[in-house]
């Protein structure tokens, strides 16, 4: 109640607002009532005109009106009709008259026969007329219309009208409703004004106009007098108020208030802070040439009203100190990033590029790294040799500096030459005044200066006592030249990079040595043989040299051995071990051992190697070496396979079907004590035998089954030739760096034609030797090898005779016409023959000596039930 009385008193701002609102509402209600009454009267008059015209036209055109006018007594006929029509149509009169205006009808009979009062001219011309006149019954609205006969001739007139008294009565009938609505509106407006004033009273704390004006003047004076900028923004980021200091510090336009902060031309950081409305305490923002400390708080801590108030003070005097602190922090960050980002790989060129990428544009606009050629190859730097531009990074690509891979010899007077000679950094603050630098290349030096590069720091890349190259830092965009502090930073930056580059150089040297060793240990060319058409691929690992190897070994009897192995690990040790294993396989294969027995001997050898190196803690054991050994015989088209911890081979049949034969998986080499079983595969001519190392089918992300399935799909879609197969298999590998070596051999089988194979059983009778010689002579003549008849007869005679004397039945002779002429004698004894030199007094012992002299090579091959002694002769 006290608040209401204060509102009604009119002394406060709320009371005055209430009175003004009430007066305005009252005036609006009165105006609305008057307008409604006038509008009702106007609408009633218009309705009277319309009704009068309609009634007059209806009566004039009613049936019988024309005939009544032609009758002897028109009044008798028309008067009753007119009165009846008048009552039905609710008009005050209907008057029918002749063309002279003499009335035939009238509500008052005493007016019949008298002259009509009104305008008749337009009606006599055939046009209706509506007018407001003073008639015999008062002020009225009347309409006069013509009555026309069928020929269109006006034979009479009809007038209908309503008095204004009746028209006004219709409007007055609506007045109570209008006044009631006005009263209700006035009541609602009064209540609304009272509520608004009460709210205003609460917000203004009951202050009067003079008090509020005085308070505003005080606040405005304080606001603009303080030496601290003040800004008030609403929740949308629109500037509501700013004092003079804020305008000065932010360089705000005159019409800043009422505009969004994004439209005030402020820098992005300031705009983000002001528009966000977040709390800030002494947050320093660079604005133009000033450093401003900004404090910002919400206008309503309770969060009911969005908005913020921001205070700003100038802290430009702290700029120098803050700049030095920021510069120091940036330098520390750069040095930290150098320790993390330089040397991520053991590649010299990439490490040099990481250094140049790090320094641009944080420290310099252009950075070039020049290394000695021998350093790139992993060797010791040669001070007399040329350097090669290994890395170059810049803010622009079109700078006239030497391009990457350009060979350079720096003159002694150049900053780079002085750095290399003295082993210390050199600062050239102004290149346009440095004749020693310009002497390097006068034309290019002029282009560099014209381009805008004006300052240079050169730092030698030192690793202990070695100078690996020189790093040049060039500045163009920043007008200030390099200073001594930046020289010290460049030295520290290059010193950290030099360690990584030297590590990469040492690794490159070891990697090159290991690659050279590995390449020397792998077969450079495949031996000549006819049993298999072979293609191969070897892909070294990206991370280092591995121990994968392969070989193709021709054996006796036109057979060929294929071997694939893998030594776990990388580096020189793995490559050297691989070479030892390959040499051992070469030696063991000369014994013509079955694959299982050969792997057993190889396993024993690896065990001995581990025992010999067990005393050296710096040498890792060879456990983890794997091997697969396969022997293909083109005569029987059979392939015998054994494996020691190695992935199984793949076979592609002539029709394209791919399978992985079930070859027993032995343990890796070096475990010892376990046998190795072999599997025998029958391969039709044209089959492809695929041998590989685990690097082809295994990676860290997928199981070997996934790799084998991927290999199966690649083989199924490959061409028929071994080269096409190798290409398809390697193309199917996932892109990226290889984590392990890959060795791949694809061999397509061939069969020795039956016409080039000759076999004879030999009875245990010395007389059968002659029959064998005769059969051999005939077969050699059939093959066109008559030149070899003598030597072949002698070789087979000696071998068959030895089999009869020292071997056991059955005895069988076989000749193969392949790249060589192969003679083989089989017997069931496992006793090995020995070559010896007979003395002059010995009666025998010269048979194998003669065989060795006549044959290109000879040997013994042991079978599960006996042996085969063979000899090869070169074809003529």
Give a description of the structure:
A hairpin with a 2-residue loop joins strand 30 (857-863) and strand 31. The protein is 41% helix and 24% strand. It is an alpha+beta fold and 876 residues long. The protein contains 23 helices and 31 strands. The strands form six sheets. It has a six-stranded antiparallel sheet, sandwiched between helices. Strands 17, 18, 19, 20, 23 and 24 form a six-stranded mixed sheet that branches. A five-stranded antiparallel sheet has the order 6-5-9-8-7. The chain is elongated, with a radius of gyration of 60 Å. The chain crosses the membrane at residues 13-38, 175-196.
How are the SSEs ordered, and which strands pair?
Layout: H1 2-9, H2 13-60, H3 65-70, H4 74-89, E1 93-97, H5 121-124, E2 129-135, E3 138-148, E4 154-163, H6 164-204, H7 209-225, E5 229-234, E6 239-242, H8 244-250, H9 268-276, E7 280-287, E8 290-298, E9 307-314, H10 319-341, H11 348-359, E10 366-372, H12 373-376, E11 387-394, E12 407-408, H13 415-422, E13 426-428, H14 435-438, H15 442-451, E14 455-463, E15 466-475, H16 484-521, E16 532-539, E17 546-554, E18 560-570, H17 572-589, H18 595-613, E19 626-633, E20 638-644, E21 650-652, E22 658-659, E23 665-666, E24 678-682, E25 688-692, H19 704-716, H20 722-731, E26 742-749, E27 757-762, H21 768-783, H22 789-806, E28 811-817, E29 820-827, H23 847-854, E30 857-863, E31 866-874
Helix pairs in contact: 1-2, 1-6, 2-6, 10-11, 10-16, 11-16, 16-17, 17-18, 21-22, 22-23
Keywords: ATP-binding, Cell membrane, Hydrolase, Kinase, Membrane, Nucleotide-binding, Phosphoprotein, Transferase, Transmembrane, Transmembrane helix, Two-component regulatory system
Domain GAF: 343-511
Membrane topology: Multi-pass membrane protein
